[in-house]
Amino acid sequence: MKPAISSRLLSLALLVLLVGAWEVTVRQAGISALVLPAPSAVAKTLWTSLATGYLWPHIGATLAEMLLGLALGGAAGLAMGVALAESALLDRVFKPYVIVSQVVPKLALAPLFVLWFGFGMAPTIVMTALICFFPLMENTLTSLRQVDPNRLQLFRMLGASRAQTLLRLKLPAGLPGILAGLRVALVLALVGAVVGEFIGASRGLGAVIIAAQGMMDTPLMFAALTAIAAIGLLGYQATLMLERRLLRPYADQS
């Protein structure tokens, strides 16, 4: 059996073991579903919510906020990382402001975003974009600055322009680090979207959790959390597939 398949089977077995232990513990201890529902109750609620169509609009809203925030914040982070890596002056001028913008908790800014952008998806997308910005910016900046000095010197000897050096050497060489930043940004985008929905949103899985808390419907809260976990895992696997596809030509050359 291949190592990759065996490791996945072990991971699946561990999941089954943990879920089984959870089910047995809840049933044997007589724990109330209000405190901790059994996995079977969570699965039943999740299935019912999906079958009746209740969860699908909320899943769609969370996905839209996550992807739009990731696109905006990722594009801005990539552009800023390239700009700071290419210009020492810009790095000295803008880097302190970038750091300050990240140390301020985004949740503390959420009420301001609601005030500025109103209720709905807009404030959540803005907060998600701000959260996604820094990982891609920092990884891009670091990756572009760690290019092999010998290859960089060769490009200079051949008379390559700054743009040619960036597009043909720095970006391809820094692609693994940039894609690693994308993986982190995607996970943070989902977190940002859900947390943003806690503040005044009427749709989204975060709003479902708040509504379920108000109704004291703990199985529905766990069902929403399960949907969030599934979205995160699928999104992370999608970035890994994208990474393998983009890095394949460079792996073939080595």
TrEMBL record:
Residues 59-243 form the ABC transmembrane type-1 domain. It holds the Pfam family BPD_transp_1. One of its GO terms (cellular component) is plasma membrane. It comes from the Bacteria. The chain crosses the membrane at residues 61-85, 178-200, 220-242. Its main location: membrane. One of its GO terms (biological process) is transmembrane transport. This is Riboflavin transport system permease protein RibX. It comes from Achromobacter kerstersii. The lineage of its organism: Bacteria, Pseudomonadati, Pseudomonadota, Betaproteobacteria, Burkholderiales.
